[in-house]
């Protein structure tokens, strides 16, 4: 079978449109997942014991289920209970719900990794809880967060390809449409693989550079 990338020339706009949609979907999902993750951490730390148990149950169930199952439940089962949402909204919300527990676990681990002595010293000199969080905890926790958060961001970007199964117009959906028109799966999917690799490599490089700057600014040695 001959490899002819020229077949894709006239379909580049459709593929680019799908890639742009993927980036917007991932950005919206990441923001929502981050906010929900922070809320989970805060409620778990300051809420009542029943609320903490409920949050723990949500995290345990979500971490145990494949993303594809959650997508199918959200898109095909919830409408039976009167909750009918557009496919892109379902995709964004499902990704956010799926990744929020991971983010919460990472944030919790980073906070636990901050030396308790620094926090106790800040409280002893009269700093407010907000000031302690902003000036003591955050600068020390952020370098601990970045490596794992980078992995989660890359995972979210790759998992966004699953949104094509519920007919969300994104990069993989656009690629499937091109394959159905050109009958050239080799060229299309090789190009798709290359784009995903390039995007994840770029994201990793950017966050790695940010991590280095933060580590240098706060005198924290890098572990990798």
What would your notes on this structure say?
The chain is mainly alpha-helical and 224 residues long. The chain has one domain (14-217): Orthogonal Bundle (MetI-like fold). It has helices spanning 12-46, 49-64, 67-77, 87-112, 116-124, 129-159, 171-182, 185-217. α1 (12-46) packs antiparallel against α2, α3 packs across α4 and α5 packs antiparallel against α6 (129-159). The protein is flat.
Question: Quick gist of this model?
Answer:
With 224 residues, this protein is mostly helical.
Layout of helices and strands:
Blueprint: H1 12-46, H2 49-64, H3 67-77, H4 87-112, H5 116-124, H6 129-159, H7 171-182, H8 185-217
Helix pairs in contact: 1-2, 1-4, 1-7, 2-4, 3-4, 4-6, 5-6, 6-8, 7-8
Using the coordinates above, name the CATH class.
Mainly Alpha
Supply the number of structural domains.
1
Total strand count, please? 0
Radius of gyration: 21 Å
CATH architecture verdict: Orthogonal Bundle
